[in-house]
Amino acid sequence: MKKIFAALVATLFLTTLTGCAEAKPEAVAEVSIVDGWVRVYEGTEAAGGMTGGFATITNNLDSEITLVGASSESAMMTEVHEVAMVDGKMKMQAKEGGITIAPGETVSLEPGGLHVMLMGLKQPLLIGEEVKITLDFEGTDDVAVVWPAKESLAGDEEYVSNQE
Amino acid sequence: MSKVSRRGFLAGASASAGAIVGASAGAWFGADQAAAAAEIKSQTAVLKRKEKFYGAHQNGIELELQTFTNFVAFDLLDGVDRAAMLRWMSLLTDDIARLTQGDAALADAQPQLALGPARLTATVGFGPAMFEKLGLEHQMPDSFKNLPAFKIDALKSEFSGGDVLIHVSADDPIVLSHAVRRLITDSLGFASVRWSQQGFSNAQGVVPHGVRQRNLMGQVDGTDNPGLATDDFENLVWINDGPNWIQGGTIMVFRRIAMQLNTWDQLGRVEKEQVIGRTLDTGAPLGKANETDVIDFDAVDANGLKVIPDFAHIRRAHAHAPGERFFRRPFNYETGVSADGNPDVGLLWTAYQRNLDTQFIPVQRRLERFDLLNKWTTPIGSAVFAIAKGVQPGQVLAAELFA
Ligand SMILES: [Cu+2]
C-alpha cells in the first residue's frame, strides 16, 4: 500500500516534491523531534553558564500537545523560553504556558526564537559533547533526546526573568 | 529520539493527498506539463546527483571526478586528546552524512545555501604527525610515514603536511564552498587550518562518463588507472589488514605539482609527445592507436631509435612489478596569472594505495632519477594521510582509532 502511494507521489509531484520518491514511510511516532542541538559559546566555557537547545518538533497526533518544560543532568535548571520584545529590546524569558503544537503542526526551536534553556551548567559544555535532555510534554509522553553541542554565533539574547 | 524525520512525515502526508486525486491524474497532467517538468528536472540534474555516504569505504575516492574540490588540512590545537578527536569526528560524521544528501548541517547559519547534493563528498584522513601527538603510532597502517625527500621536490610548507585532512568535492562551487565552511566551523574547536588548496576538473557533461580529464599541459590524465568497482581497484587501493579502523581505508599521497606552461608551450607537438610518450590528441602510447593499448617499450622506428624514448614519462612511470600501481585522482589548479603572463597552474595530484613502500615510492624514485617531464613540472606541496574506513548509520568516522 505504501509503495503504491510513493509511486503516485513520484508521478504527480515530480516538479515540487523532489526527494519524496525515496522517502521511506515508517511507523509514525506521536511526536517527532529532529535536528536537535545545544549551543556552545563563551557563556558555556565555565560551569554555571547558560545556553539554548534547539530542534524541530512535529506533533503527529490528532490532538494538541504542549512542551511545558525539560530537565537535563547537565544543568541545574531547565526551562522553555521565547524571545520577545521587552522594553524595546529583544530579550528571552520563560514562555508562559509552554509551546503548544497543533495536530500535524511542526514548530522550530531556533536561535533568536523558541528554545529550551539550560541554566546553571554543572560543567563547561564541550564542543561535540552529547547533551541528554528530557522534554516534558502535556498531551503526550515525555521524550528523552541526545543533542550534540555545536558552536554557533547566533542566539545571544539577554535573559530577563519574568518569574516572581 | 524519534526515528521519524520531518521530511518523512511530510512526504507521508502528501502521499495521502496524492491518492485522492490520483485517479484523474492522467487527465490533467498533460503532455505540456510533463515536458515542462522534464525541462526543469534536467536543468537541475547536476545539483540532484548524489553520492552515497555510508558503506565500507569513505566516499570521495572510488568515483568519477567532481568538478570542484577543496583540500583542507588542519593542525591540532594544544590539549586536543583522543576524547576530543572523537567529539570532532562525531560532528564531522553527522555534517558529512547530511551534506552529501543535500541537507543543511545542524546549526547551519545559512541553511539556504545547502542547495542540493551536487555529488558532494567529504573524505577524512590523518597525517603521521597526528599519530605522534596522540601517541597512536601503533595504529598507523603498514608503510605509513612521511615521504622521503625527492630531489625534484621544491616543497613549500604552506602547501605541505597537516595533522588532519578533510577533502571535499562537489559539482557546484557554491555547494562546495558552503559545505567546506560548515566543516571548518565545526573543526575550529579542535584544530586550526594549516592550508587549503582548491582545484577543478571538467564541468559535468563536458566529457563522457569514464573519459579521463585533460590536465592543463594538454595531456589526457589518469590513463592506466585501476577501473572503478573492479577487483584491481579493491586490491590496489583498499587496505585489508592491520588495525581495524583502517581496514577498508587507504593511504593518500597528496602532491601539489606546479607546471611551467610558458616553456612547455615553446615545444612543438612532436617534442611534447616524446616527453610524455603518448600522442596528445588520443592519449595513445606512441606507435599505438588507442589510449588503452598496451605500451610497446621495445618498438623502434626506421632509424632504429626507440619509439618511446628513454626519458619519456610513461617509460619511467610504468609499473616494473604488478603491484607498483595506485589510483590517481588529479584535479587542476589555477590561482592567477603573473604580470608577465605566466599562469600559476598545476595539479592537485592524489594517489591512493595500500602500501607506500611497494606502490608510490618506487615509481616516484624512478621519476626522480630520469624523467624529462620534470623540466616542466615541480612538486611544491606534499602530504600523506591515512584515510579511515567508511561508516554505517549510527557509527562515527575513525571511532575505533580514538576510542
Ligand atoms: Cu533562554
Please supply descriptive tags for the structure shown above.
A: 164 residues, mainly beta, 11-stranded mixed sheet, 1 helix, 7% helix, 48% strand, B: 403 residues, 13 helices, globular, binds copper (II) ion
Detail the topology: elements first, then pairings.
The complex is a heterodimer of chains A (164) and B (403).
Chain A: H1 2-12, E1 31-40, E2 51-59, E3 65-72, E4 75-86, E5 89-94, E6 99-101, E7 106-109, E8 115-121, E9 130-138, E10 143-151, E11 158-159
Parallel strand pairs in A: 1-10, 5-11
Antiparallel strand pairs in A: 1-2, 2-7, 2-8, 3-6, 3-9, 4-5, 4-8, 9-10
Chain B: H1 6-22, H2 25-28, H3 31-43, H4 45-48, E1 68-76, H5 82-100, E2 121-126, H6 128-133, E3 164-170, H7 173-185, E4 191-200, H8 231-237, E5 250-259, H9 261-265, H10 269-276, H11 313-317, E6 327-328, E7 331-337, E8 343-353, H12 360-369, E9 377-387, H13 399-402
Antiparallel strand pairs in B: 1-3, 1-4, 2-3, 2-9, 5-8, 5-9, 6-8, 7-8
Structure, explained:
- Chain A has 164 residues and is mainly beta.
- Chain A is built from one helix and eleven strands; from the N terminus they run H-E-E-E-E-E-E-E-E-E-E-E.
- Chain A has one helix at 2-12; strands at residues 31-40, 51-59, 65-72, 75-86, 89-94, 99-101, 106-109, 115-121, 130-138, 143-151, 158-159.
- In chain A, strands 1, 2, 3, 4, 5, 6, 7, 8, 9, 10 and 11 form an eleven-stranded mixed β-sheet that branches.
- In chain A, 37% of the residues are buried.
- In chain B, strands 1, 2, 3, 4, 5, 6, 7, 8 and 9 form a nine-stranded antiparallel β-sheet that branches.
- Chain B starts with 5 loop residues before the first helix and ends with a helix.
- Chains A and B meet through helix 1, strand 1, strand 2 and strand 10 of A and helix 1, helix 3 and helix 5 of B.
- The complex binds copper (II) ion.
